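Continuing from the previous page...

OK, I double-checked the sequence for Large ribosomal subunit protein bL32 against my notes and this is the correct one:
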Amino acid sequence: MAVPKRRHSKSRTRKRRSTYYNELEPPQLMECNNCGNPKVMHRACKHCGHYRGRQVIEPSDELIA
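Thanks. Re-ran it with the corrected sequence; updated structure tokens here:
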């Protein structure tokens, strides 16, 4: 198994690791069929609690305010 001959500096390591977050795409949003608010795809709506036409969670008052 290969072993590094010299240690990589902290800045070199951090530069390599930082590129991962630049390549991530923002989550895709869609309109909720029940209330019309934007929601993340394949997740229950935070505002009304519906997913695929059914009430799956109770909406909390904190998110609406």
